[in-house]
Amino acid sequence: MKRLAILFTFLSVLVVNATAAQRPPNVILVMTDDQGYGDVGAHGNTMIRTPNLDKLYGQSVRLTDFHVDPTCSPTRSALMTGRYSTRTGVWHTIMGRSLMYHDEVTVANVFKANKYQTAMFGKWHLGDSYPMRPQDRGFDEVLAHGGGGVGQTPDYWGNDYFDDTYWHNGKVEPQKGYCTDVFFNGALSFIQKNKEKPFFVYLPTNVPHGPYNVAEKYSEYYRKKGVPATMANFYGMIEEFDENMGRLMSKLKEWGLEENTVLIFMTDNGTAAGVAKVNPGGKGKKAAESASWSGFNAGMRATKGSPYDGGHRVPFFIRWPKGGIGGGKDVTQIAAHVDVFPTLVDLCGLKFKEKNPLDGRSLVPLLKGDTKDWPERTFFVHTQREEIPPKWKNSAVLTPQWRLVHGKELYDIKNDVGQGKNVAAEHPDVVAKLTAEYEQWWKTLEPSFERYGWITLGAPQDNPTFVNCMDWHAEQPQIPWNQDMINRMPVANGYWMVDVQSAGTYEFTLRHKPEVAKFPLQATEARVKVGEVMVKGRVSGGVTETKLTLKLPKGEAKMETWLKDESSGTERGAFYIEVKKVK
Hints:
- By secondary structure, this protein is α/β, with parallel strands linked by helices.
- The protein has twelve helices and 26 strands.
- The strands form five sheets. The chain has a ten-stranded mixed beta sheet, sandwiched between helices. Strands 17, 19, 21, 22, 24 and 25 form a six-stranded mixed beta sheet that branches. Strands 13-14-15-16 form a four-stranded antiparallel beta sheet, covered by helices on one side.
- It is globular and about 70 Å long.
- The N and C termini lie far apart (69 Å).
């Protein structure tokens, strides 16, 4: 009997090991916010301390010519869908143009359909209401802040990176600790609970995006080294993130998950604060002159938001020991964010029926060292901060050798990394070829300009719906997109594009600030208009909110609000509204 028990145990172990060996790989995609290519020690930055990223660099295949969009929301939509961001309805970070169209399929949808456990921790920035939230887009577990950053208009009021309140599976929950620690804690807890199943974890941190809040112990080292104050905090945020990255890597090894986990590190655009900005004759010049370190950008021109390489060429490290991906090797072929979706589908053997045509292609051959017959490729990036994108604005056409910027400037990137010499006049044939490719690409984008990321009202999955002014469509250049701007009470207004899911009676609660702020309305009259239906009412003195009721038909409509103060003559939109279908 004893021998039989030993044999049974031995066979059981064999079965478990065989099952584990056959299991598809786990995937963890980590992305920081506003960290540039030069903000990593392994890329030649001699000031910043990133030992764990440097270690991962040494263990990974590195894409050295990898590109994203120059700002955050567009990169995120392209990453999630494998499609150029503009096709998905995302070409801005505010103004209702960071809301991804409802019919887009995300990589999380695909993982979930293939029986993966899926989770997202950190920054989403593709819509805060149904059906655009991460939990509506294929993620089983979600812990996220609101909007595009901690302290922005949609975020929980008063968040400041420390002991904040975030949305956990759609409900607000207070958290303890620094934001990066909180999001990594959530990810590690999820991984530990699901380590016996294949999982996909998307971990897009909000750091090192501004405001640059971090514990003194992380920034002090850099200030003492002569790093300008803002950059010292920026570097400190990255160093704190790096500690968490090390914690993640250690736990994967401890839990026996390291070999069969695809671990990716990337960033969402060029550096925001890793290069000192100098304004001749201004304060920036004095600060830079008093500092002994002005930053590092790996020789590239410009930073976040720019069509030059410093705005969109970013780190990309990928490691999968069991799959033969790693070993500290470089892939020099040009690649982009749209390639991540098809690459993960290919790596993990996922079943996927294409609904919307992908712009990317699988990079698996390159990751495994097969460069034979790899095609020449052209990519396009642009920074659009308009209601409708103007052609050629802040644009770049990218090939392995060339960069056509603004449709006019041509740079030989192989010989001019800093993009200092415009050679358009010497290569009119190249300019003509890249111009034609851009024009063809642009025509495929134009249908997207006629659509909206509709905010749904009355859906049972999100009733009441909370809407805020960050998603206003407006001609004014200053949309109140963060809480500091709200505190200044700007006289501004805009409109939302909404989809009333079903006809009925809707109650609108209008506020200057969220309910928790308890801020008195500076108004004597309120109005709401949805489509052709409008109602107005008086506002009592000293109240923090006012309610109006409308009977609405089903369908898509333009929604506007007004809060008028007759004593001062000012009129502004409600910065925050709550819309509830009551019957």
